[in-house]
Fold this protein.
Amino acid sequence: MSDSSGVVLRLDGVSKSFPGVRALRDVSLELRAGEVHALVGENGAGKSTLIKISTGVYTADEGEVRLLDAPVSFTDPLQAQAAGISTIYQEVNLIPLMSVARNLYLGREPRRFGLVDTARMNRDARARLREFGIDVNPARPLRSLALGAQQMVSIARAVEIDARVVIMDEPTSSLEKREVETLFTVIERLAASGIAILYVSHRMEELYRICDRVTVMRDGQVVGSSAMADIDRLQLVSMMLGRDASDLRQHGSTAFAEGRDVEDDVVLRTQGLNVRHTLEDVSLDIRRGEVVGLGGLLGAGRSETARAIVGALHAESGEVAVNGKRLRRRSPAAAIRAGIAMLPEDRKLDGIVPGLSVRENIVLAALPRLSRMGLVQRSKQDEIVSFFIDRLQIKVSSPAQRVSDLSGGNQQKVLLARWLCLHPKALLLDEPTRGIDVGAKAEVQGLIEELARDGLAVLLISSDLEELIEGSDRIVVLREGKVVDNLTGDAVTDDNLMRALAADPSRSDDAQPAKDSS
Amino acid sequence: MSSQTTAPAEDVAGGVTETPRERVFALLQRQGGPVVLVLVVLLASIFSSGFASSGNFSTILVGNAYISLLALAETFVIISGGIDLSVGSMFALGGVLAAWGMNHGGSGVAVLLPIAVGLVVGVVQGSLIAYARLAPFIVTLAGLLFARGLLQAISNEGSTTYLVPGHSVFAFLGDGTWRPILTAVALFAIAAVVLVRTRFGQALFAIGGSENAALLMGVRVRRTKVFVYMLSGTLAAVAGMLNASRLQSGVTNIGVGYELTAIAAVVIGGTILTGGSGSIYGTAAGVLLLAVIQNLIGVHLSQYGSSASDLVNGAFLAVVVVLQSFLARRRAL
Amino acid sequence: MTATLTSTKAEQPVGRRRWAGPVAKYAVYAGIVVLIVVNAVMSSTFLSLDNLRVQLYQAVPVLIVALGMALVIGTEGIDLSVGGVIALTSAVLPLYLGYGVWVAIALAILAGGVCGAISGSLVAFARVQPIVATLSLMIGLRGLAVIMNGATAKPINDSTLLNLGLTGWFGLPQMAYIGAGLVAVIAFVVRRTTLGRNLVAVGDNASASFLAGLPVRRILLSVYVISGMLAAVAGVLIAGHGAYADPANYGLNYELLAITAVVVGGTPLSGGQIRVIGTVAGTIFMQLVSATLIQNNVKNSYEQMIEAVIICIAVFIARESANR
């Protein structure tokens, strides 16, 4: 099942910009009937923009989308659906309270005498779902099914509305192993019946298991396209991350300096964190003055580790201790009191409070310490705010300026200031330099360096391999929620990290299995 | 594409996640109202003399027949994830318009005028909600004010009560014992069919369940929303019109707070205030339960009048809402 | 438009209606100036002290309720129970006047706080939507109040209470000074206290606030308690001015009047902003609209319809301005 049949969907030189961002640049892609086509790339590579253009959520600024060789220009998702392009989203996009059968046939219910023929609808639904390996009473509410079964219902719905192209956006991220197997059987059958499938995932095993071809995106561009069989894991990962020797020179060096004294006392100790479907027995130790890098591909559980440590993500089991003292309550407030600060990954969603001023954003978490009997002590507050604006060189017209008017880099510095003014013992940085300009990036990196020198324990999460390698004293590698490697000292190299990320077995010399050296 | 190969994939059997306890909760939500209704009626029949008489039953049914239509209208709106606080005012307006129409044109005008005005007010409210995307509660709260204003404008600031001549065709429409009851039963039956067996009904459930998903699944979200507020406005005005026919006058100070009773009845009937789930059958049970309680209060606590019913309605609503949010959270975990 | 629904907040078109921001902020002040000028020209008695007093009797209770409402709206909530709380206070007052007027007033305000605590707990701990949580109190409280009070309105003879509405300094009633004092207190709370800072942050970005360690639940609970207590204060003033405790009729439509004042003052219902002075201006504007219409012999019925239209327009503008 490969190139025998023709092209179903073709994107030709598609570009798309948003205010301040060039999301897609001259992207071309071909989907052939009956193939399972993998689309991979790190966060911000442009995958989701590409999907949204194919499904009519966005329209392209330049370029052309052709369906069955006829140019199309969808202005809303319905048009795309009617034309045969269906999308299965990460989170199931059906109506949880409605019955399975009603979800399957919504808008296309079989009717008799003008009324919905419920009996026939349920009968048809049962038969149709059996083909997808689900045997349930279709009159039950959808939400009473397991997630895998719900996803199967949305695939069945896509097929029901005569899809020619099915786009699957990380369909396995919340599925059990057995459910994944069923999904793969169904995907193979769909492909065999001539449907083109665009499969977005970052799980290497899955890609090699079911995909025929792969297209890799980075920074809004397609960086390569190949038959799955012709590309090995290491090549694939280096394409995704854009790491070859030549590239490194081009980007120039990071602002991290070499060599640092790491003291022996463990500041932050995390033991056996478990989060369902997300983390499995993650243990980490960070010492005074140490920067521990947390490596892993998208979806490996890096952010989740940080969030579980501060209690923003509920962990079923596991312990967190600061300077040997175990945290009893697990919530962001308790973590802050214990001296752990986390800079969250999503600046807009979890970080800035857009309507408030720079001043108020900086002192948000520190307010309890800056107030007496519920009153904010202004002089103290202003002192701290101006100190950090100075120290981090935040470019603002005045502390009263609204934070949403700042550039991304300056917003990030405001958030850093928010956490630093708490004088934390451990600082968890989740993608501290994403989406900020080169100058600000170097400043932030220099700052991390300094903070560690001053004795802070730092956890650094970054998709930028260079930043991770240059900035970390050692790197803990996560894969599918598990600690799979721990690179220390001279082993912290490009090559080793890449092999660890790709799960390439060829590096076997000093691989330490799933255990933090401490 | 329907020509799938029949080779069955390995059977995952749906992976049902519902525990027996959750099933009990779900049953409680669907059948709680009816069960309580039956219990209250049984207990009242035993302990309250004069309750279980055909005379008293018909008093309860006739007295609540037209008001129950407000709960019916509210059921549609709430299932779609909205709320209509203007139904009480529209009920009063419908009655006054009918009586005014009777005096200014005859039975035809008396019937058609409330329908037309209800339709227009409903469409305007629906458009503000669906197209200008204003919050339903604020739009319909303003609608409440507007309808009251219009009513007072027609009735010379409430000082004129238009009467309906007892011998007219219009007065015949809503009068008697059986006509109100049968009208209500018929409308409830039609509503049940519309909700469960038409694409419009399905669209309401879909929008209330998840507006985004409904949009992606091809539901005409905005059109459906306009339609549901139009339906609600019209139904409330019609209920008021029929009530005016029965009372043979357009009472101006009627209907204050009726929207709240209607909402309470709907929620007690198992419809979730956040939308996406509910039934006409439940609403019928909710309406009857509140009517029976009101009747009992009228007999045993007559000194408190309708205030005691308000208190009971509010308490019922609070308990049911807390239960529902508790159940929803259980499921989410 | 369909597309924006599926895209995230950040991707929405920026500055779609640039006029909305300034209009939401300043239109109300312009409106006040225009209405005052128009009225002063058309009527010689408009600027008299007597008329001012009449306007204040009506506006001050609304203003006090609106202050609490502004805090609740700042957290992206709504409090529909304020009318019910006003009814309840007017029922509580005569019951305890025998123990002394200050005891009665304290208990009335306490009752308002308890009501606020109930709806606040529903919102903060049971995570019920604010509309739904406060709706049940809106229904039940008035019924409870009428039962407590009995069917007929009770006269109030206590001079302290009556004086609230009558005498005062410089010809203005005492309640005007109470209103002004509460405006100052709330403005202070919003600008200078941790609570004020925190509640705006929670309304603007709840997720970031949680991660920053703010006590989100406690903040929500406090806001509803304050709103309940302020509604109770308004209830005391209304009863004092009316010289009767009439729970069946006091506080009707106050939730709408208060929300209108807040929204006309330029605060969007989507939370994250509190405009105390804007709320004062919103109250004054709506009072002036009503006074102007009455002055020109526009009937009460038309006044209601005009107000309904103003509400919809104000909500629309405030919402557009929040889509920054």
